[in-house]
Amino acid sequence: MIKSILLVCMGNICRSPTAEAIFKAKSIQNELDIFIDSAGTLAYHQGSQPDHRSVIAGNRHGYQFEDMVARQVKEQDFEQFDLILAADENNLIDLKSICPEKHQHKLNLMMALSPFDDKNVPDPYYGPGDGFEIVIGLLEQSAEQWLDFIKSESQVK
Question: Which of 17, 44, 53, 56 is 20 to 30 Å from 153 by CA-CA measure?
Answer without folding.
Answer: 17
